[in-house]
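>> received
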Amino acid sequence: MESNQMVDYATGHDGLNTPRDVLFVQLIYSSTLAFAGIVLLARVAQIGHAYLRYIVCSGATEKQQSVWSITESSLWVRIKSHLLYAPLFGKRHNREIQLSSAMNMGTLPSRFQSLLIFGYILSQIIYCCDLNYQNDTPAVIAELRGRSGTLATLNIVPLVLFATRNNPLIPLLRISFDSYNLFHRWLGRIAAIESIIHMAAWAVNTVREANTAALAQHLAETPSYAWGMVATAVMGFFILHSLSPVRHAFYETFLCIHQAGAFLIILGIYLHLDMHSLPQKPWIQWVILIWSAERCTRLLWLVFLNVSRRHGMTKLRVEALPGEACRLTFFLPRHYPVPAGSHFFAYIPQLSWWMSHPFSAAWTETSGTSRPKSIQSFTTDVKSLTLENQSSPFNHTAVTLVVAARQGMTRALYTRAMSSPDETFTTTGFLEGPYSSHAVNMASYGTAILFSGGVGITHHLLFIRDLLLRAAAGRAATRSITLVWAVRSMDSVRWVLEYIQEILQMPNAEAVLTIMLFVSKPRSPGEMRSAGGVIRTFAGRCNPTTVLEEIIPRRIGATVVSVCGPGALGDDVREAARRQVDRGVSVDFVEEAFTW
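>> returned
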């Protein structure tokens, strides 16, 4: 009799505590929806506050904006400084933990992110451990099998959603893709461990009922168990495969394996649930729907943005730049507006048919603007790229990206350009996007302080252009913009020199804009001679604390501090901004990061 019970505990529903499983699923649903609702309300309040500030300050004098320059609530000061903007500990957040020049252990989550991750892990442990220990051991193991399998399957839904580029929660909650990708990685680890527990619990009861040979026989003769084993094995492999040293050292290979493995996991779980007619099957159907819909959306948008019956496909010009970088100019066959702060995923079939990489949009030329000189000077080979007669207005959008040569595709691009005549070549390329985290309304701040490190300048150029245009038209609160750019050498300045020159010619640029250029390794003292006016040059590393100490006392209205660059710079700027927040200064901190 006991043997028959064990058989049921191993393969049937005996021992499962379905009402308890349903209760915990409902708890996860309700707690997740409650948290999302709180975040949504907070975002609505934040957007409303920013919009009110924008309306009031757009036509206000500098003195009238002063009421927005301080934070009256000491509680809000503490929340921002010690929770929302705080690293886990110390000041390290996005600075990578280096094992060697080629390998790193990734970055640390922020304090708020860590609390969310820890809280969710703790809840999953509690749910898995809340078993009826008064039952016999096989029954307890069977209950653990059901509980861990249910939780693992449920976690697959947000796991897949958070990995998608078109995740609707990004614009709704205004949380960046970088943050969702962090949660994606942790959900993956949780689901993998729960799947292993589920498989182990089944295996233990199967062996207790019979022997190891019976376990092997089940896997060989029962497709549902075999597919469950495939899914679990791949998820277990992903725990090691997705570790930061492996992920970053071989990123393009990692992506290919990861996507193929994800397909096997979803297929394996679906077949496992379908063959047993289990109630968790609709969750995986939702996963398949989310994954398929997102991929179809991306494909359709890719075709819409890059293919035109009248003007053909997107063309790409790649130029090698000093300082081991490339400038990529995509000539879209249609006009499409690109918001400031956007990034695109670039596809270059000549280098890879399926790989895409994210880059910030450094500059755009859109309908109604004249072609820049760099485009007007094209020779016959490149005339096809402009898609229109040289003398006509530029009626299509050109998007420029600046890419530092590192490894993989970026290094191949640079090498290919360097070996081409005039260090330039043309090919077919495609853009997917634009994407944005929709972090803040930059035009609602009287003072904008933008820190850029190296190629991170690309994130801020369009913001500066947009703010200057809005300020000149009286449609922005912005009265002061400071661009702080840290570079290794003056070679980096040539990457975007023509765009900076265009910005300097804009209305009110001299009155509103200041550029602080920090060169850590200048070739000669003469190279560092400031031209005066808007641009100030400094030899040495940028100290964000010193910069903010200089700018904040003469701020106008509310202040936004934005940073895009290496993790070490981001951490230094974060620390400096938190010091100002602690003093009651109305400072909002924004970081654009690609840590995945």
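>> The longest strand covers residues 480-487.
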